[in-house]
User: What shape does this take?
Amino acid sequence: MTNPIPRKKISLRRTLHNKLVHIARHPLLYLMLIPGLFFLCIYKFWPLYGLQMAFRKYSIYAGSNPMDSIAKSPWVGTKYFVKLFRSAQFSLVLKNTLIINGMKIIILFPVPIITAIMLNEIRSAMYKKVLQTTIYIPYFFSWVMIFGIFYSLLGSYGMLNTLIVKLGGTRIRFFTSTETFRGLLVFTEGWRETGYNAVIYLAAIVGIDTTLYEAAKVDGANKWQQIWHVTIPGILPTVVLMLILKVGHILDTGFEQVLIFYNPAVYDVGDVIQTYVYRLGLGKMDFSQATALGLFNSVVAFVLIVGANTLSHKTLHRSIW
Assistant: This one.
């Protein structure tokens, strides 16, 4: 008597057969996946090989090419992580990163939600489109262009400081003062990102069933009560999703923005993990230390995303997965 085939193997065979049948029926759909898979392998999976540099004393001259150099560099274990955690500079950049991103989350996260609700309440379609386009346009500006705009306005001899001096005041060093630099980063990111994020919430508001508003009106709810009891609960899944993503990227402060805006005068309050990695890797050619810091950043981001998603699932019963 032959042994029966386990159910798991039968289920696996059926699944594989169904997948192959689906591929045979829709070959063009799977053909369209090739560019995306190619991009994923080349730019996402293949670079993971370079994470070994965090555990090796990497020398670019150890081999005939960068990949060969990684393989031939001596293994040092967690040496660079220990060195990193004992470094006073690491403590400073971690503190700056958490403070700046914490300010951005606390101050900027509610702004696009409020903006989207206000845009939704505008009854004039033309005025609504013009206003929405106006606040959305800055998102397409590069950080170099934004720096130029704000430097002409807030620089030591910019329009605002010129006006302050004419009124008898003293110039405010927005770009070189440790007291104002973090606020400048938060304000400029809010100016650039609010319109884009507001569109996301506005799309969520449009998807709310209009009969809910009609039912609220029948029950005697005024406009504020409709917003509180219909609009906000309706966009809550989107709000939770965006908040989880924000928390997960709390160590990603915005590399391009900080790199363009900061200068040695504000390193103590503006130097963040990503700019420190940039200076270590390309400035000092310390690739192993920079890789160790980048890996630490990625692991913490992963833990935060999973933790925020789990907390949201248990408390709000809403999550990404």
Notes: The domain at 79-315 is CATH 1.10.3720.10 (MetI-like fold). The CA atoms of residues 97 and 291 lie 18 Å apart. Residues 287-315 form the longest helix (29 residues). The mean pLDDT is 87.
